[in-house]
Amino acid sequence: MKLIKNLLDSFSNTAGGFSARKLSAFIAVVTAIWITVYELPIEVQIDALYAWLLFALLCLGIITIENIINLKNGKKEEVAQPLH
After folding, report:
1. 47, CA 20 to 30 Å: which among 16, 22, 53, 71?
2. Among candidates 9, 5, 28, 29, which has minimal Cα distance to 19?
């Protein structure tokens, strides 16, 4: 019962409930698994899986839109070298 209450509370602006980012990422991963394994031809499965997992990372806030654009364009982030 508490699981259902927390799930329903996550759709409101109150303090209770689950995190919307985590729910979105979870649904993205579950959808990615289902569609990739059962619905897509083998030739495009890895590309679809990459797209779904990028969406899950975006939902969690681990990566940003800027990171995705840089990845698409092939830009590498410069790592700051420590001063000696």
Report:
1. 22
2. 9
For residue 6, give both structure tokens: 């927390």
CA angle 73, 57, 1 (to 5 degrees): 160
Residue range 25-35, pLDDT digits in tens: 778 788 888 88
Q: Answer yes or no: are the C-beta atoms of 59 and 19 closer than 8 Å.
A: no
What HEC string does the chain produce? CHHHHHHHHCCCCCCCCCCHHHHHHHHHHHHHHHHHHHHCCHHHHHHHHHHHHHHHHHHHCCCCHHHHHHHHHCCCCCCCCCCC
The pair of three-digit structure tokens given for residue 41, joined into one six-digit string: 């031809």
Q: What is the pLDDT of residues 40-49, one digit of tens each?
A: 898 988 888 8
Query: Which among 52, 48, 56 has a CA at the least distance from the CA of 24?
Result: 56
